[in-house]
Design a protein that fits this description.
single chain, 240 residues, alpha/beta, Carbamate kinase, nine-stranded mixed β-sheet, two-stranded antiparallel ribbon, 40% helix, globular, binds uridine-5'-diphosphate, kinase, Uridylate_kinase_bac, pyrimidine biosynthesis, nucleotide-binding
Amino acid sequence: LSSHHGWKRVLLKLSGEAFAGGEALGIDPAVVRHIAEAIAEVVREGVQVAVVCGGGNMFRGVQMSAQGMDRARSDYMGMLGTVINCLALQDFLENKLGVDTRVQTAITMGQVAEPYIPRRAIRHLEKGRVVIFGAGLGQPFFSTDTAAAQRALEINADAVLKGTQVDGVYDSDPKKNPDAFRFDRLEYGEVLQRGLKVMDATAISLCMDNGLPIVVFDLMGQGNIVRAVRGEKIGTLVSP
Ligand code: UDP
């Protein structure tokens, strides 16, 4: 549990759905503001923050392939969607809050972002810049959760903080079952065995194999991002 304190470098995973606020699609500026302000606060405290943006508010590959579209192509569309979220967050951090940022994408698009270069990303972080990773892993059949785990490992982050719409991990869906039980702590094996909805199995096993802690928390709760980054007790901690 000691690893749950004093994190110096974190990987914040932002679910795409959160960006849409109450809507099904698009970007709610109030959400971007909320996230950006919290990131600015912890960066000023000296924590190095890298971000992986999801894209569920734009496009999910699986949904379109269910309607007959080629899965890989629809996944590429999904990856492109995540970049739109990255640019929205970058804009708010830089133009409204004066926080230096760099967007790095797993699919090269030189006009809008740097390519993903891990050592350069680390250098940015050391200089206090927020590095925002877009386009997931650049590979179809993966998720941005898996990208978050992989990027966290490659840049040597202390933890993956998964900001989402729920305030932790439950034994059943809290929206359907009023008696759903919320876990404070879990081990990776338990997550996989019980099929708990933390991250997909690829992401979980990557974290498990490398002892990378995951915190699942409600992204929109007041002060939550700051608490998660500071390593305060919040949501559900998945760790060895
Ligand atoms: N995606 C992909 N490879 C990756 C990351 C994402 O193919 O490495 C695609 C996939 O189609 C996914 C979409 O991008 O549905 C959006 O990402 P995700 O569903 O992970 O976003 P979130 O659930 O965080 O909103």
